[in-house]
Each structure stands twice: as C-alpha cells, then as structure tokens.
Amino acid sequence: MAQHGWDVRVGIDPAALLSEESAALVAEHLSTDLGFLICFIGKPDGVGEAAVMEVARTTYRIVLDDKAQFTTQAAASTATFTGPLEVAVRLLYGRLTPAHTAADIEVKGQHHARRSANGLPRLLTAA
User: Fold this and answer.
1) Structural domains present in the chain
2) pLDDT tens digit sequence for 81-93
C-alpha cells in the first residue's frame, strides 16, 4: 500500500510525502471497505470519553469511542485536525513523527488522546 512506499521513500528523502492522489485513495478506502483495518489497529483504550476529530477541509472524521473509526458520517466534532489529508492518513497509520511533521499541523479542541513526542495525538498507535 501507499504507506509502505512512503516508508521506503522517507528513508532516502526525509521530506517525502504521500501524493495527494494516494492520500485521497487511501482515505476513501479506510472510510469504507478497508475500515476494518482502523478498527483492528486502533488503540482507543486510553480515551476516557468519545472523541470526534474532523479533518479540516475534508468530509472525514476520526472517531474514537469503543473502537477507532475513520468515517465520512456526520457527527458533532470535539476537535479539528488542520493539515493536509496525507498527514491525517499518516496519523492513522502511526507514521506521524516529529521528524516528518510540518510545523503548521495542529489539533484544536477536546480529543482526549495520548500525546506523542511532537505534541500531536497518538490516536491509533500503541502506547
């Protein structure tokens, strides 16, 4: 998948990104037929209460309650992720590290998630 290609490219070029087309395709699949992957790899155990993080300028939301979901279903958001969709996709796959995150990426609101070293939420990775 696109994430594994990014893993290889970022080893050579630390500024590598997923293409917009790849990010859009991965996001579409994770919100539909591959949604089971998010449920499988998601670790919302540390979330004390439900959180719905909208991905700004898209129809996508990261939902953490009894399970993790990436969806386009309407829901009142408790937080907003502002940044490119490719960064949100890397967040879902646990590939949003300080060395590979632009300074203008931010999360505002109540997301009730553990923090990673760069201050962004560790939503879907093990503690």
Assistant:
1) 2-109 (3.30.1050)
2) 999 999 998 888 8
